[in-house]
Amino acid sequence: MLIEHMSMGYPFATFAAEINVCRTTLYNWAKLHPEFAEAKRRGYDKAYRTLFEKGLDALYDKSFNTTAWAIIMNNMFWHRNKSKSELASHNAASVDEETRILAQYVGEHE
Average pLDDT of 25-47? Predict the structure, then answer.
């Protein structure tokens, strides 16, 4: 079911609405159940293929919104062409940024 959903180009998180659970539940399932995590990985591969093909099919279609397509591809698959060290530094930077924002918020609301 998950792979079929994602093969239409939908991201993993939208599957939560499909089966009426919250996104956190999906992420917990992926951590706890290796077969669900595998379905998630396979689903992302299917979604990538579907969306990539849409871009190729529309290569010469002037009405196709290439900017929107590029943003979707970048947001869903930003990690696809990154090395492990780049991913680790991205995750560390994200945590640092979230910590800074939280500290700023707390400081403003004390």
Answer: 92
